[in-house]
Design goal:
Distance between the termini: 92 Å
Oligomer: single chain
Radius of gyration: 29 Å
Helix content: 55-70%
Strand content: under 5%
Shape: rod-shaped
Order of helices and strands: HH
Structural class: mainly alpha
Low-confidence stretches: none
């Protein structure tokens, strides 16, 4: 195996590893397990305060 073939093979392996690492990091960044809590609606907050349904 000559030097040029070895360098070409090394470059191919390095490129493949770089692409695989980039895709892995991109997938990990997109998988956020933290979810935003659902915000209560105005009607739900009014029910909690016992104002809902009262007449003035």
């Amino acid at each position: 195996m000559n030097t040029r073939t070895a360098q070409s093979r090394l470059r191919s392996v390095a490129t493949t590893l770089a692409v695989a690492l980039t895709l892995t990091l991109a997938a990990a960044a997109g998988c956020d397990s933290r979810q935003q809590p659902d915000l209560p609606s105005v009607q739900e907050k009014l029910r909690e305060t016992h104002i809902y349904g009262q007449s003035p």
